[in-house]
């Protein structure tokens, strides 16, 4: 892989773990949830937002009966994921596709499990988010598990403003310069926040059931549910 991509991968790995404390625990909990529902059976997992390859490294080596279909619009992020799959020697169980879920070539009811981690807050409006979740629901076999994780909060609340300050302090504690962290604060304000309640409502509208919030860390939270 080209040097600038290796560097980008390194920075992404590092900064995500500052941005989302307990990021690795999120993946360990999601894996436990999938295993609890799927056991040892062969599992086809749909990874929406598979760029960077963190789902592959967290779940690939430890679950030899799982196959992965990863979709992501970013060519660079997919190249990093492909590189990780090669390094982990799991390429034969991984298919990576550039695009969004609307362009997925598989038929409905294909997958045994799905994840969408740190993607939803990049989608501008509620309808776009609902379409994404609805399309994921369509791809899952009935009753199968889905893990969603994204930023959450009520944009106009003091509570969210407070959590953004705390999120900035995670980076200051990690040694980032104050000016950079201030710029990052502006950027984070522009992502699309929805409250926990609105996100659970969206999941319901998209057809998901038994919705449980299982994870919360700074600006982000995770929900388990069933198709
Ligand atoms: C912060 S990264 C998260 C990647 C990975 N899930 C993780 O946790 O490391 C967000 C990813 O979502 C991708 N993305 C943005 N919009 C998307 C969409 N509509 N469908 C799928 N992926 C999308 C971006 O290209 C990027 O690779």
UniProtKB/TrEMBL annotation:
Domain Methyltransferase type: 46-143
Keywords: Methyltransferase, Transferase
Keyword Metal-binding among UniProt keywords: no
Keyword Lipid metabolism: no
Molecular function GO terms recorded: methyltransferase activity
InterPro entries: Methyltransf_12, SAM-dependent_MTases_sf
A GO BP entry: methylation
Cross-referenced PANTHER family: TRANS-ACONITATE 2-METHYLTRANSFERASE-RELATED
Protein name per UniProt: tRNA (Cmo5U34)-methyltransferase
Organism in which the protein naturally occurs: Lysinibacillus fusiformis
